[in-house]
């Protein structure tokens, strides 16, 4: 009589991508999640703060967003999702909750900072397909030079790194290239199973 496999899955991976407005963190985070596939949650600071809470990003109002965002991350991790969290996440308002989030997580953690000069952030912002309606002067008031979390292993990626290089660095350094999905979709999803079967059929030699 065979014994059931009682091996617990390894804890999910937490990836944090930070940087100034216009540094390319959102586009990068979306591509990282796209390449991983299902089983990774993408949590964007701007969406959670601006759209869900509709809260201004100011230290003068004792904001709810830092706690709300990190609680959302914890929930996704607890449910077995690998998490890619991206945002400016200024240390003035987010350092304490991010350090706590990292300390409390028992799985792999990888933190990245996109270190891009102010002039380059403006250039990248203006080259977007749909630039946010803000001026360079407004962007300058948000810009913070090398606003690092100062945790062991924090990876700083400079502006000379291409988009493709940055995405590849994050996937490999975080371990997502070898991490497996732990959530019901795609592990137990009939739709995903059919897609996998179709992929195998297409790629097998005739």
What this model shows, in words?
Helix 1 crosses helix 7. This protein has helices spanning 25-36, 45-53, 65-78, 91-104, 118-126, 136-142, 163-174, 184-187, 190-203; strands at residues 14-19, 40-44, 82-87, 109-115, 155-158. It is 46% helix and 14% strand. The chain has a 5-stranded parallel sheet with strand order 2-3-1-4-5, with helices on both faces. The chain has one domain: Rossmann fold (3-Layer(aba) Sandwich). Mean pLDDT is 89; it is low at 1-6 and 199-206. It has 206 residues and is an alpha/beta fold. It is globular and about 50 Å long. It has 9 helices and 5 strands; from the N terminus they run βαβααβαβααβααα.
What brief labels describe this structure?
alpha/beta, 206 residues, 14% strand, Rossmann fold, disordered N terminus
Give the SSE layout.
Elements: E1 14-19, H1 25-36, E2 40-44, H2 45-53, H3 65-78, E3 82-87, H4 91-104, E4 109-115, H5 118-126, H6 136-142, E5 155-158, H7 163-174, H8 184-187, H9 190-203
Parallel strand pairs: 1-3, 1-4, 2-3, 4-5
Protein name: AAA domain-containing protein
Organism: Micromonospora matsumotoense
Region (Disordered): 1-29
Number of H/I helices: 9
Q: Gap between N and C termini, in Å?
A: 40 Å
Q: Please mark out the parts with pLDDT under 50 across 5 or more consecutive residues, or reply none.
A: 1-6, 199-206
Shape verdict? globular
